[in-house]
Amino acid sequence: MSQPFSSLRVDPDRMRESFNQLASIGVTADSGVDRPTFSDAHLAARKWFREHIEKSSLEFHTDGAGNHSAVLPVIARSDSPEAMTKTLILGSHLDSVPNGGRFDGALGVMAALEVLKTVRENGIRLNVHLEAMDFTDEEGTLVGLLGSAALAGHLTQENLQKPRGGRDKLVEGMNRAGLSDSSMLSAARKKESLAGYLELHIEQGKRLERTKTDIGIVTAIVGIWSYRLSFIGKADHAGSTTMEDRRDASLGASAFTLAAREMVMRDFPNCVVNVGNMDFAPGAFNIVPAQVDVSLEFRSPDEDEFNHLDKALLELAAKESACFGLELKTEFLGKHSPSLMDEKVRSAFAESCDALGLSHMSLPSGAGHDGQSLADLCPVGMIFVPSVDGASHSPREFTKWEDCVNGANVLLQAALRLAM
Ligand code: GLV
Ligand code: MN
Ligand code: MN
Known about the structure:
The protein is an alpha/beta fold. The protein folds into two domains: 3-221 and 339-419, 3-Layer(aba) Sandwich (Aminopeptidase); 223-336, Alpha-Beta Plaits (2-Layer Sandwich), CATH 3.30.70.360. It contains 13 helices and 13 strands. Strands 1, 2, 3, 4, 5, 6, 11, 12 and 13 form a nine-stranded mixed beta sheet that branches. The protein has a four-stranded antiparallel beta sheet with strand order 8-9-7-10, with helices on one face. Helix 3 links the parallel strand 3 and strand 4. The two termini are 15 Å apart. The model has no long low-confidence stretch (mean pLDDT 96). Bound molecules: glyoxylic acid and manganese (II) ion (MN) (2 copies). Residues 139-140, 367-368 line the site of glyoxylic acid.
């Protein structure tokens, strides 16, 4: 069925200009971006976004979690007072991983903003407010999905006391952005105020490219659990201590890393495990390592499987640590649950792709995204556009502009279907 708004399209040149301006903030020598949360470059990107919103004559909004957004207030189609209090949020994030790419997060925010501009200049009447959101610290430099968890009311004191990036770094970051624990905890919105959340993102994998498909419609977002594991041995002279006498913390940490890979591949084929960092103390050529702190993250699409994997990984860490005469300390650093995407939103995306003549396929997301914070409060959905060579969290990240524009048009069309 043809919709009254079916001919509406985003302005690809205007969106590209905004995208390029943003990509120049925190640009690295190899054309990636380095914008970890509340770094100078991230603060500069946030300031640019705010000024850009104000220049575009949209309403600028911020909250206690530092989420920044553009709001297009409802121009009501019906006089239903209930409809007029709800907001459909579109968005993503402006922070990046260290030495990341230009597209992860930035594309979703720029597309969301472009949708609002297009709706406004065409005078489209909707039943909900539209909001284009930059969520704080999606990538987890400090906490991970921080702004969206705060907005959803899921953030706790404990999350803020024991963040995975370390409490000192979080406090320093919040100070730089003029935020605090109490402001963070004040950012929750009422469930009744949310009409839904939609996000456009790059795929960060090769499935769309391999199958030559224009759009991926996300079925579910994987869950993420994190721990700091400390393997503790004894510092000794690296030259005069015999190999038998050493209690070398690096051996437990390394043996665990290899064994965890093998176990997950063998027993948990739907899951992944990652040791993203090892911190050696004292950390010198000529001292046997006394302690190695391991940053451990694992992901699963299924809550039950998480419980099994969690137990298996902790048992493995204890076993490998005992094997080398070490002590093991474990610190749980939080979890994000796996989330199913909303059926109605998925259909709105599929209908929009069909109307635009774009091919589409359903696929799960192995990356975490802010939608998983919101999925138990309101209808949430995501679409992916192809990533060249599947590259992401790397300066090699690249998506053809034509694909970015296709994604933005699907976002626009689906938002209109859901907002009318
Ligand atoms: C975010 O991109 C994540 O999946 O870690
Ligand atoms: Mn992202
Ligand atoms: Mn990312």
